[in-house]
Amino acid sequence: MGRKEERPGQALEVKVPNLFRCPISLDVMRSPVSLCTGVTYDRASIQRWLESGNTTCPATMLPLPSTDLIPNLTVQRLIHIWSASASAAASASSPSAVLTRRVASDLLREINSSAADHDTVPALRKLADFFSSVEVDEIDKNDLVNAGGCPTVLAPLLLRKDSKLEVSAAVARVLALILTSDVVTEGNKKIVVSTLVSDLHRSISALVRLLRDEERIESRIDAAWVLDAIVAAAASDAEAKMLIAENEEMIGELVRLIEPADEKGTAMDCRAVEAGLGCLDGISSAKRARPRMVRLGIVEVLTRVLGADPAVSTPVAAGKALRIMEAVAGCAEGRAAICEEGAAAVSAVVRRMVKTGREGAEAAVAVLWSVCHAFRDRRAAEALAAAEGGATKLLLVMQSGCSPAARQMAADLLKISRVNSKSCLAGYDTKTTHITPF
Fold it and tell me: What is the pTM of this model?
């Protein structure tokens, strides 16, 4: 049975067949394509996977002799049939029709001319419907962002200090829909982000305010996605990057957003985890941010995320968590925190070493190498030796076409783990040059 598809402003709850969901994003596929393994993905999601350097099928983790993407016209037709019937059912239960470009433009003018904050909320929600609807032409969406001046209307509402939280949440919803859309062009997304980056301090303050909102998880997720875009845009600006790295409140709220509600991680929100991890992944590239992230408990939270059920902590989320763990392992505070977690942290890293793509696997190896070899922590080394399947996974990484540095680090870790006498690899030894990943 499919899950209930959640769309802003849609009164009818629609059950989406699992066949129509992308295995990576879990959203309904807009452009289904198949790999040579026979698994079908949404084109945008699988392209991001391949462009990240991965050479395996995300679902099966089988090596890909070819990365050609074949349009799955059968699934596409089925999705169109299903979508049409779902839309007909929604129309029968609701008088509202799909918003047109003209109506959306009128909404922007209404928002821009509203005298009171509360007057803008209904219009903002309708605007969110416009950007979330799969029935609205992508040209109309892009035109509203570019020629329609959508960012210049929305940004001032978000940045106003006296804006009500409900208004800020509605604005963040529209901005997040634009910035995470597969049909909005990168150029138009840059227009939105540049508008926010032009007043970076106030933009961050407004979004952190939403991250603190305990009553609206959707608003917190939207704020994280918008922050993710801002962090990515600020990566090439030293001053902006420093401002972000030193914002301890923002980092703390993002850590809290991804924190599982229980020890097993079964109660965590997958969307919140992915949004928060994406933002923290970008922030962790700043060395000055890493000690702050450690002080705010990032290592403990990442350990629990990595230890959660893979059905809850997806391969994409686990890959991001491993990259952040690698980044914080680059500072003394981070290595100490990983060792303090001991067996829990090492076991979690080993557990998710494979099936997270090349970047995730290499990040896992770098984390283990840092604490077991460079830091030479006895607790971490013992945990690695005791980890189930640790040696096998290290060998798999070495044979997977990883970088020379990762291969040598994996070989060093095999020496440390010294597999037990029941293994055919007992006594395995290597002669390697130690290369630090930091």
Answer: 0.72
Q: How far apart are CA 256 and CA 217, in angstroms?
A: 12
What is the C-alpha to C-alpha distance for residues 193 and 365, in angstroms, rounded to an integer? 34
Distance CA 86, CA 90 (A): 6
Helices H / strands E in the chain, number of each? 22, 5
Mean pLDDT value across residues 37-62: 87
pLDDT higher at 112 or 283 = 283
The Cα 33–Cα 41 span in angstroms is 6
- Say if CB 248 and CB 205 are below 8 A apart: no
Which of 48-52, 116-120, 369-373 is least confident?
116-120
Q: What is the DSSP string of 165-211?
A: HHHHHHHHHHHHHHHT-SSS-HHHHHHHHHHHHTTHHHHHHHHHHHH
User: Which class for 74: exposed (0-12), middle (13-18), buried (19 or more C-beta within 10 A)?
Assistant: exposed
Largest CA distance in the chain: 77
Let me know: does 365 contact 326? Beta carbons within 8 Å: no
Whether residue 172 contacts residue 222, with contact meaning beta carbons closer than 8 Å, is answered with: yes
From CA 34, how far away is CA 36, in angstroms rounded? 7
Do residues 260 and 267 touch, judged by C-beta distance below 8 A? Answer: yes
Q: How far is CA 50 from CA 55, 63, 166, in A?
A: 7, 12, 39
Beta carbons within 8 Å of 289's beta carbon, 6+ residues apart? 244, 245, 246, 251, 283
Q: What residues contact residue 408 under an 8 Å CB cut-off, 6+ apart?
A: 432, 433, 434, 435
Is 11 in a helix, a strand, or coil?
coil
CA distances (Å), origin 38, targets 62, 70, 106, 422? 11, 10, 46, 37
Question: What is the C-alpha separation between 377 and 332, in angstroms, rounded?
Answer: 12
Helix %, strand %, coil % for the chain, to 5? 60, 5, 35
- Other CB atoms within a 10 A radius of the CB of residue 170 amount to 28
Give the integer Cα–Cα distance in Å for 431 and 412: 9
- Give backbone dihedrals phi and psi of 34, rounded to 5 degrees, phi first: -115, 140
Residue-wise pLDDT for 408-426, tens only, equals: 999 989 888 764 324 433 3
pLDDT, greater one: 1 or 30: 30
3-class secondary structure, 5: strand
Structure tokens at 95: 């008088």
**4 pLDDT higher than 50:** no
Instruction: Give the C-alpha separation, 30 to 41, whole Å.
Output: 9
What 40-44 contacts at long range (C-beta under 8 Å, 24+ apart), as own/partner pairs, is 40/72, 40/75, 42/182, 43/69, 44/182
